[in-house]
Amino acid sequence: MELLLAISVGVLYGTGLYLMLRRRFAQLIVGLGLLSNGTNLLIFTSGGLTRAHAPVAEEGARSLIQPFADPVPQSLVLTAIVIGFGVLAFSLVLAHRVHKISNTDDIDEIGNS
Amino acid sequence: MSLLVLPIILPLLTAVILLLTLRLPLFQRWVAFLSSVGLLSVAVAIFVEVEKKGIIVFQAGGWPAPFGITLVADLFTSMLLVATGIVGVAVTATGFAGVDPKRESAGYHGLLHVLLMGVSGAFITGDLFNLYVWFEVMLVASFVLISLHRTRAQIEAAFQYVTLNLLASALFLTALGLLYGATGTLNMADLASVLATRQSTALELVLAMLFFTAFGVKAALFPLFFWLPASYHAPPPPIGAIFAGLLTKVGVYSLIRVFTLLFPHAPDGLYQLLLAQAVCTMIIGLVGGFAQKNFRNVLAFNLVGHLGYSTVGLALMSPSVMGGSILYVLHHIFVISNLYLVSGIFLKLYRTTNISVLGSLYKNHPYVSLIAMIPVFSLAGVPPLSGFIGKLGLLRATFGEHAYWTSAIIMITGILTLLLMARLWAESFWKSAPQESKETIGFQMLLPIVFLSVVTIGVSVFAEPLSQLTRRAADQLLNPETYINAVLKEGIHQ
To answer: How far is CA B354 from the centre of its chain?
Structure first.
């Protein structure tokens, strides 16, 4: 399972970076989204993949039932998703603004022309 | 409640108030200004406390150290907080000289305070993931501030800034994920104690390189600095001042904090790489400055060049050089912010900062020039101003460490800076402008510049106690045991 996730993280990073190197806004923004999702998946995987009990102690119990899933990476991913969503929304608005001002979809052409 | 939450809470509350009162510009200016004064006084109070009692720690929500979020202030942090407060006061004071009404109604003042909150949060947090969150707070505020523009060149600048910084954030987050997977903690003190007990592994090198790249982009170090000159000439001068003075310094701060705590015993090559990077940053930045024809572009390249000085101390890992670097960072924050504000005067007079159009300032406004002389000559390193003292400190320290090549480069770049600033002075103050300007300079515009110039003179006059202070801050950074103990012990006792 780890291998599968590691490969998907790699594919997401690769495609994300490739798209970010393109000249069109739309591709750049999609690339950004893929990259941030790759990162989220990486954090999730790094917490260890256990298909097991929730990290909540039973009533009266002094410790958790082994094995349990580490909740910290999941909360980190949650935070990262929220931040990534906000940033993506911002870049979409920025791209829309650029498009309205310069009537082009090509990053190289905004400055000149 | 601890004093340490105030540098975050105060700007947050201010930002909320300011974003709710968009229709009252005058009220907004006063609130923004008074709140920055409050931030400065809180920062000074924290500094005095740290100076008296040593490192102070606050565990948010009462959760002991590795579990909750920790706020920590040591000498380095508290000095940078004071600098943040000073720049904040100067920049919000420029609001009285008038802000573009469109910009003001879009929440300019509130966003400045969100930015200040992000900067103070990044300086004060003791948790790496929290550092990432503060970086994002700071970045999103700066994104909006930089893209509140209409012209094409400015929008293009904003786009480059946004893309590269987001890429750096993704790398930072990747490093955090891997780090958590390897150690199971993200509290910096806890990480330091866990990593210290381990053999150096390949993963550690990978992590170090990821942090190196991510913070290198934020700090605009060679070869990752190209976004900075491409974007810093576009925003209006007060925003340029706060960006140039504080944002890159947050990158430098994170680099120093993370490397001294997490990788003090990393393989030698890493620190040689850092040194090479610092040296290249100095040379490329200052040589690049000569090709520029715009006042603010010259400043941007100058800024890049001088960021090299601030990481030399980290690269050599010696307390004396680190002390010199910290002193240089402090001096540079005030001087570069001040120069961006000076560029605002030119913008007001000539509507552009293109050097070929500037001039005659010395003839028409001798007193203004006299004040502007302080930051210009200080950056150039003319004695007895603070730039000279900072460079002298670094030179003596690098000689003491037998890093002769580095000393030579520091001297050469010192001369380059002098030439660059002399050219800037001659072109924009001395020569006669092709077309005289009829605009006048209001005193509201001058006050922040006078304030920052007085601070620069203060740094020059109190150089001796300040350099002892930065030396102690460097000792604290290079002996992380005190930091680790302060954070973890405090956590267990509560």
So the answer is: 25
